[in-house]
Amino acid sequence: MVINKYFKVFLIIAGIFYAYTSARNAHDFEVFVDAGGKIIQGKNIYAPPFAQGLQYYYSPLFALLLAPLSGLPIIISQLLWLTVSYFLLYRIWQLVAVYFDVTQFSKKQLQLWFIISLLLSIRFILVDVGYVQMTIFMLWATLESIQLINRGRNIPGAALLALAINIKLLPLAFVFYLVYRNKLKAASFTCVFYLIYLFIPALYLGWQRNLDLVHNWFTLLNPGNKEWTVEAEDGPSSLVALIPVYLMATTGVLSFKRNFLNLPFQQVSLILNIVRLCVVLLTLAFLRTWPFKAVKSTLRQFWEMSYIFIAVPLLYPHQQQYAFVYIIPAFVYLSYYFIKNWEVVKQKMSIPLWIILFIIGVNFSPIIGRDVISSHAFEVLLYLRILPIAVLMLIPILWICRPKDELAADQ
């Protein structure tokens, strides 16, 4: 990693301080560890009471894996997890860098690429670390598994991808991506490992108890559940949280009106599902080939995966701010594109376009923080769903910045 040594020292010191301040108080990781303690005590991990009153949404296997931490003080278990998360962030940068040809980059350009990528990503990294959450791990597991599969190591790659899907469903879309890109063996192994992970807790829990927990878990995650159809409370930032609040009357934390229409729920649900379908179908535009066709260019592969990383947190319900760690690959790609093509970009860009790009980019910067813009302003942005709007605007930017030479070569 080509960065200034003083900047590197600053990042390390700031990271240690932030990890300690985050770990001092119980956060989301306490909910996961609490489930680990409950599962070895024979309790139902999906039934209250919950740590901090927060529902546990992850798998029985994940709870079992965290059970050894349940006997530790929560600050210790959270510091351990944040230490792992920091290492995974470093590994994520290593994994994404291999997709890009930077042989023509100067040292200054390499540093600029890293800094711009970090500035666009840091808001979500801070939220994930601040809540001691899982999305850094999910992003690493997805990228690492795809890298293993690209190298022909289908079994370990599939095992890791299946584990990530078992814990949280975010990477499920990449199984379909593997199928589309003719990685059928890897996709098949992933399905096999997913079934193994689903039932392997029975060796400890017993067959019937594991089945009961899996049934409770799947019932909780059912996308047809009412709570996944309209998310009016402040916090969620997916399409389920964005579209209904503008098309029907809902109640949020703030009192001013945000809906410009007042449609019946059935119509809102239909519009929401049509938009979600369009986001799914738009994947085909980014893939740009018939199914079961591999592509040669690593840059092209990363570009099309970047769209999937954007689409996933938009499509899934109940996605909080930390879930948008998943869009970091898109930031890395766009930063690379602008640096590599700077001479062409600055000729084509006008002042209004730069202003629009700046406004979109600000939404991903650390400026958008409760302690920076004030708690009230932050609540207004959440209430108006500015984050998912900004993420949606990334899609046309990613399309405009497509790797045209690599696409033409593959054609």
TrEMBL record:
Protein name per the record: DUF2029 domain-containing protein
GO molecular-function terms, A-Z: hexosyltransferase activity
Presence of keyword Transferase: yes
Topology of the protein relative to the lipid bilayer: Multi-pass membrane protein
Subcellular location: Cell membrane
Protein's UniProt keywords contain Protein transport: no
GO-annotated cellular components: plasma membrane
Highest taxon in the source lineage: Bacteria
Main location class: membrane
InterPro entries to which the protein is assigned, alphabetical: GT87
Chain ranges passing through the membrane: 7-23, 112-143, 155-180, 186-207, 239-256, 268-287, 322-339, 351-368, 380-401
Keywords, comma-separated and alphabetical: Cell membrane, Membrane, Transferase, Transmembrane, Transmembrane helix
Organism: Mucilaginibacter pedocola
Sequence similarity: Belongs to the glycosyltransferase 87 family.
